[in-house]
Amino acid sequence: MTIVESIDSGSLPVVETFHSLQGEGSYAGRSAFFIRLGGCSVGCSWCDTKHSWPSDVHPLVPLEVLKQEAQQAAAAGAAFVVITGGEPLEQSLAPLCEALVPSGLPLHLETSGVGPLSGAFTWITLSPKPHRPPHQPVLNACHELKVVVHEASDLAFAEAMAMAAVRERSAVQPPPHLLLQPGWACPDGQQLAIDYVRRHPQWRLSLQSHKWLGVR
């Protein structure tokens, strides 16, 4: 079954759902319910969820089931829902967002921005990749720009993305939070990010705290 067919039948390829803590970014440390969708063509060599790349090996989960799980997570203390992947924007997310409305939880999106923006979100985290630049509408809409740092060229890319994110932004929309996140187990990236944030106060350091803590 193709992705389009799965959406038409009211379901999506889902890698996993779980209730944990947001481990990174501006909302790090808060209770969150995660929906990890299958499918990603971006292909980052350092990706820690490569098992999510193929969409056709993951079960098609009805949107009604995801709604029920989100409601249960809300009752258990989740503060928001995080739609992640894979690359969520390789799916049409409007039906999923609509299905999750009864949960009463704000909806957050984590994306590299390579697909058309769909769905309605309270918070959009854009993590762009140099080899697959994001669509401008996603840059315009993001609340948080988070760039992973492995080498010095990633810092130049981060600044270019920061400029692009405000170039066509409306006058009433605040600029995104700017975050540099060292690649996991990358000492060079860690030092580059720390040194850059120390010298450029508009940027913040983002750490993958869930990995340090050993939580899901």
Query: If strands are numbered along the chain, what order do they take across the biggest sheet?
Result: 3-1-2-4-5-6-7-8-9
| Number of alpha- plus pi-helical segments | 7
Beta-strand percentage range: 15-25%
Main beta-sheet annotation = 9 strands, mixed
- Helix fraction, binned, reads 25-40%
The total count of strands amounts to 9
CATH architecture: Alpha-Beta Barrel
Task: Note the overall shape.
Answer: globular
**What low-confidence regions span 5 or more consecutive residues with pLDDT below 50?**
1-7
Query: For this structure, what is the CATH homologous superfamily?
Result: Aldolase class I
Arithmetic mean pLDDT: 91
CATH third-tier fold name: TIM Barrel
Would you write up a description of this structure?
The model is unreliable at 1-7 (pLDDT under 50). By secondary structure, the protein is α/β, with parallel strands linked by helices. The protein has a 9-stranded mixed sheet. The protein has a single domain, classed as TIM Barrel. Helix 3 (94-100) links the parallel strand 4 and strand 5. The protein is 31% helix and 23% strand. It has helices at 3-8, 63-75, 94-100, 136-141, 152-167, 187-199, 209-213; strands at residues 11-21, 31-37, 60-62, 80-84, 107-111, 123-126, 144-149, 177-182, 203-205. The protein has 7 helices and 9 strands; from the N terminus they run αβββαβαββαβαβαβα. Helix 2 (63-75) crosses helix 3. The longest helix is centred in the last third of the chain and has 16 residues, at 152-167. It is globular, with a radius of gyration of 17 Å.
